[in-house]
Amino acid sequence: MDESVVSKQAMQRMPYYLQKLKEMHAEGKTEISARLFAEMFGFTEIQVRKDLASVSSVHGKPKVGFKISPLIVDIENVLGFKHENKAVIVGAGSLGHALMSHKGFSEYGIEIVAAFDADEDKKGIEISGKPVYGMEQMQKFCNENRIEIGIVAVPQIAAQRVCDSLVLSGIKAIWNFAPLHLTVPRGILVQNENMAASLAMLFKHLRGVSDGTD
Amino acid sequence: MDESVVSKQAMQRMPYYLQKLKEMHAEGKTEISARLFAEMFGFTEIQVRKDLASVSSVHGKPKVGFKISPLIVDIENVLGFKHENKAVIVGAGSLGHALMSHKGFSEYGIEIVAAFDADEDKKGIEISGKPVYGMEQMQKFCNENRIEIGIVAVPQIAAQRVCDSLVLSGIKAIWNFAPLHLTVPRGILVQNENMAASLAMLFKHLRGVSDGTD
Q1: In A, which residues are within 8 Å of B94 by CB distance?
Q2: Which residue on chain A is closest to B13 by alpha carbon?
Q3: In sequence order, which residues have a C-beta less than 8 Å from that of residue A81 and are 6 or more positions away?
Q4: In the predicted structure, residue A2 carries a pLDDT above the cut 80
């Protein structure tokens, strides 16, 4: 199985398959048909077969379906959820606090090991058992702990500066929660959590509903 | 200006334009060129002109550029950030708590007015000045307050049930933070905040970096 052939779109569907597979596994089920997945998610059966074939060497049999256990392992591998990915977060405000406290992330193989904040009052405190350091300690910490993932949870006005510091600290991938475009050198990935755009889509739908168009 | 002609892709770029325009406005600037935007965001100048023309009746002049103030108003209108959109949230755990406490949402025109939680211990408490009610009060509250937006911030196992309750309460748009596919009747929009997929993209990039491929 060559994970480079998995499309971005398929990657985005994988967490949904994975969640359902885990649920069925917990219920004691051992097999799932592509048809059931297709109905559940509103995809075509061909799409589901193609998605699952792209991540798994275990092909589904017509009428019998896919074996659940090996498929869970294969999808977790492709998603990278079985690796231990250490991350730091910059910004220990309300959003940073929440991300550090969120128990669900461990399931995805990411661990936030420390936070950095420019606020002198936050230096030295712990959030959910993880230390908050001053910004000046970031580079040393990231180098020593070989951190490759940085989470940006600061106000937009500070975000580019923080991003630059993360890049200087050796970070290779940035998960950006600030609503702005970050400029990074080639080879660094920025994954935006564009909540403003999500809200805009919700509002657009609501206006469509009240106009009678959508 | 007919907002229905604004593509989904353009809608997703608008928050970035808006943020930059607000920043420049605060700095006392009055005009921006499409070229500057294009360089800043890595889009083509034609793309920027097309995006801005799709939301604004004030066309940019070659060499002079776009006037910042009316453009801010136009983009905020298209995004729906100037309306007051009331929302309820289901799930007052760590994520729900964070979303309720996040001050940044007011800028986007959304206000979380109440939370609902199945946990008896949470009933009656306040989070950031907003009440937490039991699930049985949801339908009445949403009807009386004409709530159209519901935020799902519960564990995945409870999410579909919560989604069904929101639909029964008259919700027209759901902002889903649980990592699963929600099934809804026609006419209801589900906007997924698929953080698991975002993380998978980050991890994929990191493996690409260490493999020397990407």
Answers
A1: 98, 101-103
A2: A197
A3: A18, A107, A108, A109, B196, B199, B200, B203
A4: no
Residue B132 sits at the vertex; the CA angle it makes with A154 and B94, to the nearest 5 degrees, is: 40
Decide if A95 contacts B102 (C-beta within 8 A).
yes
| Confidence class for position A62, pLDDT limits 50, 70, 90 | low
Cα-Cα end-to-end distance for chain B: 41
**Is A8-79 a CATH 1.10.10.10 domain?**
yes
Q: What residues of A are in contact with residue B173 (Cβ under 8 Å)?
A: 202, 205-206
B43: pLDDT confidence band, cut at 50, 70 and 90? confident
Whose CA is closest to A95, among B101, B199, B197? Answer: B101
* Predicted TM-score of the model (pTM): 0.78
Which pLDDT tens digit goes with each residue over A94-149? 788 888 887 778 888 899 999 999 999 999 999 989 999 999 999 999 999 999 99
Whether residue B85 lies within 8 A of chain A, CB to CB, comes out as: yes
| ipTM tops 0.95 | no
Query: Residues near B101 by Cβ (< 8 Å), separated by ≥ 6?
Result: A94, A98, B127, B128
List CB contacts of A197: < 8 A, sequence separation 6 or more: B11, B12, B14, B15
**Coil/strand/helix, residue B125:** coil
The two domains A8-79 and A85-197 share their CATH topology (first three levels equal)? no
Domain borders along chain A are: 8-79, 85-197
B123 vs A40, residue with greater confidence: B123
Question: Using CB atoms and an 8 Å cut-off, which of residues 104-163 of chain B contact chain A?
Answer: 104-105, 108-110, 148-149, 155-157
Per DSSP, the three-state class of A196 is helix
pLDDT for A37: 87
CATH number of B85-197: 3.40.50.720
Shortest distance between the Cα of A192 and any Cα of chain B, in A, equals 8
State pLDDT tens for residues B166-188.
999 999 999 999 878 899 999 99
CB-based contact A172 B205, cutoff 8 Å: yes
Q: Is the CB of A200 less than 8 angstroms away from the CB of B4?
A: no
B2 pLDDT higher than 70 = no
